[in-house]
Amino acid sequence: MNNNYSRTQFIELYDTTLRDGAQTKGIHFSLSDKLTIIDLLDDFGIDIIEAGWNGANVTDTNLFKELGRRTLGNSRIAAFCSTFRPALSVDSDPVFRAGTAVNVPVMTLFGKSWDFQVREGLKIPLEQNIAIIAESLAYCRRRFDTVIFDAEHFFDGLEANPDYSLAVVEAALNAGADRIVLCDTNGGKLPGQIRQAMETVRNRFPGANFGFHGHNDADTAVANSLAAVDGGALQVQGTINGIGERCGNTNLCSLIPNLALKCGYQMKFITPNRLALLRPLSCRVSEVMRLPVTENQPYVGDNAFTHKAGVHIASVLKHPGCYEHIEPQWVGHRRELVVSEQSGRVAISHKLKGMGYKTCEEATLKRLVEEIKRLSSQGYAFDRAEISLELLIHDMLGEQGKGLTLEHLSCVPLAGIESSQLFRIELALCFAGSVRFRRHFSEHPVAAIQSMLLALMREEWAEFEPPRIQQVSVEALSSGHLRAWVALGADKSSQSMVVTGAGERAAQCLAVVESYRWAWLNARQNRQQSLHATMACSA
Ligand SMILES: CC(=O)SCCNC(=O)CCNC(=O)[C@H](O)C(C)(C)COP(=O)(O)OP(=O)(O)OC[C@H]1O[C@@H](n2cnc3c(N)ncnc32)[C@H](O)[C@@H]1OP(=O)(O)O
Ligand SMILES: CC(=O)C(=O)O
Are 334 and 305 in contact (CB under 8 A)? Predict the structure, then answer.
């Protein structure tokens, strides 16, 4: 494995998490969410952060007011807006006027570069669209340090009517655009097509600066971005975790390490130390978006360096390079080896060592492997249930009764959230004195409790009593109380428990969790596990 930072060319990173990312179904940024993400991107070392569209919604309007007063350490802020609308003018289009009335260094305008879109979307003559683009860009040229033109649907346009698409690019360059960003707006292109198109524009406009904006509808956005860079694009646009309209945008969490580690491109701020902030960045942005990072997401997902197959684990323990393409710490991740029905003796022996067992006889090891496979065939899943696995191992090695302790639980309203509807809930479970399970949830209390209960069920409990946990739901009552159901039996109605929490919101959360603890104790009484809770509520 080679950590290869060798090329001298700088690639400019343009993040559109807060603009194209905000176009994702289910994602809604508040003002403080946007400010938090801007700080994270700035610390990480993104060159340009597209913050939103002034005037398009209240949050963005307030955001640009706030941004006008701030300075960032590394990044420059871009505002996004369309060219003025055909029936209006630079002076009379209120959307264009508001969109460009911002105190930021970079202005990005998007315009049509596909004749079909001009005819069908704008319903105007092709020449008029070119005039609108030129005039809108010239207006911005006089007001901003950097002006970027996003040529929407450029690749579709180049295929359909190359003369027209290239004429749009020429007009944008002549009007003073610093970068022409070629957009695969419908996200259907493949790397070979992007490479060829890049060659065409580079030959036609030598010396011009191009960028690439890719969508992931054919699952090729990252590959297309790499092809664009290889073809001469100096700027790449994308989002954290690949969010964005429809199937999303180029995932910067994959693209950045590919550019740095695989292709040897340099990015102004992305040193090896900064690259090691990639996974924390991805997780933190996810947390702000209240969406989990997809587990199998390359580089940053939970499973990116998780080994499950017995054969893989046996080799990785000899040399990680046998089944890893880079070292996890380069992107701020860690290696994980999990035990399951896919394990052999090596994986389980490794687990035993980690638990402090110095030796284990071959016959015992074999018995453990067989028992794990037997239980797995009944629906137990140990790869997500480390503590359950450890309880089983202790039992089988004659050390029953080692306690499982709920050590710490706190529920704190998140500072700086204007709605004050969000809580940060922290939960730590200790087993045999060391913390084995820790989770943070930053959510509305109802959602947070659901997540917490489901996580507990999935990871710590359900494996021992698979049929018994049927459903958990939490509901906010109009009285301000929370009501929780924990359905314990095969027949959901017969053993469900209803608990109503009272008091302050944080205390309500704790009341519900306490009720869950009660359910847990009842469900586990046959196993005689002890559960002690110390709860702290700092609300
Ligand atoms: C490729 C991309 O991802 S572009 C992303 C664009 N982002 C968004 O749309 C999110 C934010 N948008 C909004 O909040 C609203 O759409 C606004 C405030 C921008 C505009 O709202 P409205 O004025 O009510 O217009 P509406 O959204 O209904 O329609 C968009 C208008 O822009 C026009 N338009 C679209 N592209 C362009 C362009 N490149 N140049 C000029 N006008 C354009 C459309 O033709 C349409 O006008 P029409 O109905 O007269 O044909
Ligand atoms: C500009 C943009 O978001 C697109 O063309 O997809």
Answer: yes
